[in-house]
Amino acid sequence: MRFAVLACLVCVAGARASELAQASPVPAQHEVDQGIAVDFSALPAAHIGDPTIFAFTLTDTASGTPISGARPAAWLVAHDKNTSDKNGSNAPQSCKQQVATYLSADLFRRADIDLNSYYVLSLNDDNSISVVDPLFGFGGSKLLAMLPLPSRAADWALATQNDALFVTMPTSAKVAIADTRSWKIVDTIAAGPNPRRIVLQADRAWIADDEGLSVIDVKTHALTRLRVGAIRELATSNDGDLVFATGAHDVLILDAHAVKVLADIVVDGVPDLLAYSSAAKAIYAADALAGRLFAIDVRSHAIAATVAIRPGATQLRFAPDGRHALMPNPQQNAVQVLDAASNRIVQSLDISNAPVQVSFTSLLAYVRRRTSETVAMIPLDQIGVEGRAVGVADFPAGQHALGDGGLADSIVGAPDQPAVLVVNTADNMIYYYKEGMAAPAGGFNTYGATPRAVLVVDHGLREQQRGRYATAMPVKNPGAYDVVMFVDAPRVVACFGLTIAAEKEAVEKPVTRVTAIDPPHQLQAGAAVRLQFALSDVAHKELRHADDVRALAFEAPGVWQRRGDLKRLSNGNYELEFIPPTAGTYYVWIESDALGLARNNSQFSVYQAIDAAINQTN
């Protein structure tokens, strides 16, 4: 499993069953282990490669009570692979042996499908998003997709079900929407000018822009514009009902369901920091330059308190308890702690090297430092008591200073563990740090791209109803599978059988396959290269042609890209000619609306260009 440990599940829902084309359900299966009943069901997709829905229901046999709060892990392995153990025996592995195999993170005995899967996304400087299977437990990583964006991104947010990702792009005034199952950009919405901060609330994406708010329906992608003047910052209530926004000298409270302004509260300052306290039921807005913090009651819409803070704060963020907020201040080399119960600053922590951002796990606050590679760690159980000293620790997250960061988080919690992922832009790395360690336990590069932010997208099992854990995952190959399930507490092991039937033949629109013809082993920087591609009908193996066949050649990292029409050759293939300007990694996509090859299709080719001097030496 990821990071070679059991607890690697972030509970994130899979795709909704109502949104998937499904085949007939597989009959439910029942097993009992240690007094716990496990019922397994599956709803295969109608088309091979689309998500199949998997569900496990856990029940106490003595009381009939559903087991809530469990963290099941599950895997699928082709039945014919389970024919020998590590000693070479031809006897099938027992259910417990299979669990031990997958928990041990054995590189040579990986499951075909891991129902605990999560992915790490990096928001890159080169107008792209990298999607990586971290494979930390196996000592490496795997690039699953590289999503090209029309322009540089500023911020991003996941929809509630984690099946859609919304990305703001200020320079192009657009919002890209990516499907996190297919890893494709499925839509691009024209928003208001300079869209930047984004939050999700009430099945809508709320985007701050220079004219107000652009509000996008998560399901239909319909756009609503609220022209209320330039918006600086956004926040949401934890009950799903309210959105908060700061203007030039005011704070707006909006109904997230009706998409309308409920109140416009004028404050004595320029509110550029914003955070909601679930404990106080108040929205806090700070004028960082003037050093004033305004506490606004969300029920009465009145300013409950004005708190003096040290000028220069760069962020205002509440800890998981919803009561204590941390404010990093690089000018003062300090982090102040606000108690929302008393509306007082109760602690001021000395943090050197310009603290600029803070992120939380359940146990610690992680503080990014602008001029150091070390991340400061503040124990959350030591904050909130006025005047109490706090034991601040740190760890090195790379070789170079971490820098400012951007709107999107550069430190995020790792799935279901006391651990974090940390972006070091200068290192071109994302590091994995487990709490209690002296240094990162691992990390991965971003395949030539320069990362600015990191995000975890989890497609693992999630408790959707009390005692029922489900997810949706594509099964690309039909056949018989063993389904292996394990729960650590209470300790439960269960195995089931599942057959995914081959898809029935149907008359459908042909699918186009892109095949690189005799791809060169290497490209040479500064030298022209001609790349040939065959476009064929997958079903009938026939070459396909259209007048709108184009290509995008894209270098990572950097901003170089070339888009243009392809030349059709006499043999029916298509040719792309370009000159890679520098040594590096190049991605090539073939596009054609007529042939169903969207700009965000997953059939990209990767080439490595080297310097001419290196080529001559070799």
Strand order of the largest sheet: 1-2-3-39-38
Distance between the termini: 40 Å
The multimeric state of the shown protein is single chain
Strand content: over 45%
Low-confidence stretches: 1-22, 83-91, 505-509, 614-618
Question: What's the total helix number?
Answer: 2
Helicity, as a percent range: under 10%
Query: What is the gyration radius calculated from CA atoms?
Result: 26 Å
Biggest sheet statistics: 5 strands, antiparallel
**Average residue pLDDT:** 86
Signal peptide: 1-23
InterPro entries: Host-pathogen_enzymatic-act (IPR051200), Quino_amine_DH_bsu (IPR011044), WD40/YVTN_repeat-like_dom_sf (IPR015943)
Pfam families: Cytochrom_D1
Keywords: Signal
Task: Note down, in words, how this protein is organized.
The protein has 618 residues and is an all-beta fold. Among the domains are: 2-116 and 462-500, no CATH class; 512-617, Sandwich (Immunoglobulin-like), CATH 2.60.40. Helix content is 2%, strand content 47%. The chain has two helices and 50 strands. The protein has a five-stranded antiparallel sheet with strand order 1-2-3-39-38, with no helix packed on it. A hairpin with a 5-residue loop joins strand 33 (411-413) and strand 34. It is globular.
